Backbone:
């Protein structure tokens, strides 16, 4: 009898340990993987600097803060570098955005973004790849010009303890209260193995030869 109880207790301890380990390993699961950009391409010879605070709304919540720099590459290509930290100790991204179908007449801008990622959280280091189909459409509203956008980030991350795929649904909008100050807001919904979050971002455009400038 005692032996049976001991075996059951051992099994429960093993089950609890498995769930606890899964929680610890997934603690940093993609809370930082926001998009924070539309499918628009920067004008030639322009770049942008920005900051993006993020509020986590699942798995106990938390706060992250990211900084990014965008640059124009070609007619349909932009690139971005991002670094950040907070609830997730540190992360960095390098991404390229390709938009072969621009926003014309009733057609939305349609393209995608590919990013390579490195994450450090406590003693866990991970590296991965993110692919994001991205859509946006310019709109003239009573609150000024804005660009609503939507995306579906799919991320593959590999670390010391775990390799897995995460997905989110992203919806947001970027406003232009002034041509030299851009404000965006975004909601990311956890679809699989990720976290839900709200974020805002503020960006400032620069022209290559003249510096801080409207466009």
Residues:
């Amino acid at each position: 009898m005692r032996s049976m109880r001991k075996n059951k207790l051992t099994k429960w301890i093993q089950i609890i340990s498995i769930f606890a380990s899964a929680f610890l390993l997934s603690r940093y699961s993609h809370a930082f993987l926001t998009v924070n950009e539309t499918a628009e391409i920067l004008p030639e010879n322009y770049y942008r600097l920005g900051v993006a605070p993020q509020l986590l709304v699942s798995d106990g919540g938390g706060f992250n803060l990211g900084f990014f720099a965008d640059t124009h590459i070609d007619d349909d290509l932009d690139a971005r570098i991002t670094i950040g930290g907070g609830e997730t100790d540190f992360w960095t991204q390098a991404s390229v955005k390709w938009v072969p179908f621009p926003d014309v007449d009733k057609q939305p801008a349609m393209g995608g973004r590919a990013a390579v990622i490195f994450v450090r959280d406590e003693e866990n280091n991970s590296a991965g790849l993110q692919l994001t189909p991205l859509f946006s459409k310019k709109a003239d509203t009573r609150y000024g010009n804005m660009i609503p956008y939507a995306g579906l980030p799919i991320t593959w991350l590999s670390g010391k303890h775990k390799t897995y795929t995460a997905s989110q649904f992203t919806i947001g909008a970027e406003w232009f209260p002034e041509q030299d100050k851009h404000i965006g807001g975004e909601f990311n919904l956890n679809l699989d193995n990720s976290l839900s979050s709200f974020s805002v971002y503020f960006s400032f455009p620069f022209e290559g030869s003249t510096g801080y400038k409207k466009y």
Notes: The chain has one helix and 13 strands. The longest strand covers residues 163-178. Residues 11-31 have pLDDT under 50 and may be disordered.
